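Folding follows sequence. Below is one example:
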Amino acid sequence: MQKKSVKKVVKKKGDKGNICLIYEDEGVEGKVYFYTHWRGSNMREIIRQALIRGKDRWDDAPYLARIIFSELIKDDILGLTGYGIAPFEMDRSKLVFVDLKEQEADGMAFDEYILKPKPLDHKKRLSYTQLAQGMH
C-alpha cells in the first residue's frame, strides 16, 4: 500500500488595513474606506507619499482621494483582489483616518504628516468619535 502524501495548507492572514477618508461639504459629512489586504503596515507611508505627490490637490477632496487610492494600488492596478472601496470599514484591522476638510492625517496637519507620520500602533484602535475628540 502506498502512503498518501499530505500537503499542509497554510493560510496567510494578510496585512489588512483601512484608510478612512472623512469628507464634509456644506455641513454634510461622509466617509469612504479604502481597504488593503496586503499593505496595512505601509498605510502611513502610502498616505505620506500620496500627500507629497498630491500637494497641489489638498484643497480638492475628490482628487486627493483618488491620488491616495492610486498610491495604495499602484503596484497592482489591474488586480481583481487585494483592495476595496466601501462606505464602511472592511475586515476590522489597522485603521488610519484622513480628514480631507481639516487637511489632517491621524490628527496631524498634512504638512506635518509628510515630514514624519506617527508609527502605526497595531494594538490601538480609535473610533472616529475618539479621534475627533483628540484622544489620539
In short: The longest helix spans residues 61-73. The mean pLDDT is 85. The chain has one domain: 17-132. The radius of gyration is 18 Å.
